[in-house]
Structures are given as C-alpha cells and as structure tokens.
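batch job 7 of whatever, protein = DUF1501 domain-containing protein
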Amino acid sequence: MNASLRSLDSLSRRQFAERVAKATLGVTLLPHVLKGQAAADPKSLPGFGKAKRVIWLQMIGGMSHIDTLDPKTGATKGPSDPIATKAGYQLGGYLPTLAKDHSEKLAIIRSMTSKTGVHASGQYLMRTGYEQRGTIKHPVLGAWAQELLGKSSASLPSTVCVGRAPESGNGFFSAAFSPLPIHDPEAGLQYAEFGAPKEIINKRLALLNEVDAGFRAKFHDTNLKAYTDFYDDTLKLLSTEDLNAFRLTEEDSAAREIYGMNKFGQGCMLARRLVERGVRFVEVAQGGWDMHNDIADGMEDNGSLLDKGLSALLSDLQSRGLLETTMVVLCSEFGRTPKINSRNGRDHHPKVFSTLLAGGPAKGGTIYGASDAEGNAPADKQVTIQDFHSTVGHALGLDVNQIVMSPSNRPFTVGDKGTIIQEVLA
C-alpha cells in the first residue's frame, strides 16, 4: 500500500488524506493541517519582515465602508459623492486629500467579514485576531512582536496605545509586554516629570526594594518580576532623552496644524515621533464612528479628521524616508448597513466592511476583494479578521505558523491560523 500511495500525484494524495480524515478525524482538523503544510515557510512569501514598525489606526464604533473606502452609487450611496483617484478606483467623498495625494500608496481590502456585531467584542477581535473569551486574554500584535522578535528599543516601550486604555494588551504574555497608554497625545506621558530630586527618588526606590526583597524571595512569580522590570524600564526612560519623543511641543506649530489640532491628528503625529525613535507598534484610536443618527453630520466631522490626519501621516513618513519600512493600518470593528435608517444613520454591519494598508510592503494602488453592488456582503475574495492579522503580522516579520503556548498550556499563533493575503504585499 505504501508504494501505491507514493505513486499517486499530489492531488490524489490530498484526496486520499481528505477521505482518511473524514473517516477518522472529522473534517474540521484537515484544512488546518493542509494549510500548515502549504505555508510551512511563510518567510518565503511576499513582504515578510519589510515592515519594521506598524502604526495601527483603529476607528472605534464601526466605520461606514460605503462612506469611506468602498463608495457605492444608487440607493445605498452616502450623502457625499465618490471621488475618483489617480490609481483608478474611487474613495468616499469625505476623503478628498487621501484620494488626491495618496491613492497610489494604498492597498484597500473591500471584502472583510466578521460574525461579531457588538462593539466591545468586535473591537477586541480586531485588536487581537481572536474572539473574546472569559477564560483568557489575547495579546495585540505589538505584544506578539515583542515575544517573537524581542524589545524594539533599549529605553522606549515596544508598544504604545494612544487615545485608549491598554485593556490588557499584553494578553497572556508577561505584564512587561503591556502597551504604554497615552490618553491625550498633547499631554504626553503622564507623570513624566520627577516630583522630587533624583537623589530622593533613588533613596525611596532602595527602601522599596528592601521592603519587597523578602516577598520576592518567597514567591518566585514571573508576573512579579515583570512588574519589577516594568518599573526599572520606566525609570530608565525617565532619565533618557528618549522621553522627548512624547513631547509634541517640540514640533513646529505649522506642522502640527497639518495633522489637525485634535486628538486623532495629534495622535498620528505622536505615532510618527515614536516609531521614528524605536517604538515598534503604535495604536491610535479614534471614536465617534457609531453613526446610528445623522450620518451626514457624523461623516462631515470624523471623515475630515481621518482624511487630514492619515494624509499628513503618510506624507510625513514619506518625507522622512520611513514609509518604506512603516506599515500604516486603518481598520474598524465592522462596517455599517447599506440602508439608511429612519434616523438618517446606518446601523451595525459586520457582514462586509473595508480595511486599508499603506507603507512597508503594502502594494500601493491595490483593491483586493469586493462587496456586492449594495455593499451588503462580500462578492469576491472574502477576508476574515484572522487573515488580516496574519497579513500584518507577516509584514512585521512574525512567523504566523509558530505556535506559542500560553501559561495554561494552550497553543496560539499570530492571527489564529489566518491566511496571509499575498496579493496586497510586495
């Protein structure tokens, strides 16, 4: 039998394996087995490791794909007319600068889909690539990168989140992998100034260390050590010039105006300052996208903030020679319904929505996948959030097939076994 099996061609061997699996293991295991064989060496796929850093722009509330990245005509058209771009596709009418100056830099995925239509769960899924569970917390991509690649800077944190709390972004990894939270980019790093002379601070720390020494000797816990290391790293940051990365006041006021004098625009500028100095992963969150009412007014406000901030970020990164090695990600937890409701708004719609990649290995001027004519469902090349995470992780140089065991001895991978979308990478 072995000789006859070896004589089969590759397709026949696959058919044989499928029949065996159906008879013995059930059909759910096999696709992952075959997929793992097909992508045994992700480093050979396009774009691997070409992004040395990622700026992750998460629009909280459910950004309308029809009014931004996947405009439609007819009954589902938004309140603004689509804009033609040099790259040959259209963008929503609220993104004029992005359409005019940056369309050839963008890789847009118009066939994203999810089963999660609740804000908190959807945001968790988009941030981590995993469905929310009560028994475990999953890491964000920045924490994954620190686990697989090590720290990105001697003094700066490897991951920073701007405009939101860290929300256990380290997941099941060490507390030392937690994102550093910056609530207000203009305020910078909270408590960054010493309230006492360094000599006094050092004496207090020595006393604290003496008090804690007995406890640490008795309880050899990795999380306890992680918190100790976190404090040490924080003090190291406070005593270096890298602390200036968090100070937007060092920027020219005219340059700040280009980004927009609001939390999102200034958050994008802060992200540029941070990745320029060695932070690997920066998340910038912007709320206000839950437009159940008066979507015209909501898009006028938020669309303008997005267009100005993202456009300035792409121009700034390019002028500084950083865009080729920095991937910019634009995403949201889901889209919004094609049909305008009775309150002139759009409701939650996870069935299809859009995301955007730019910089790094992102293949500019690319549209991947499509929604149907109404923007109601994927019509071609359906993409899951797991696929999206695997693609960004791959670009960042993470082996998405590498299994990492959690403290509870459960196996996990970047993107939860998603498929790398090779067509959007170069």
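notes: The longest helix spans residues 295-319.
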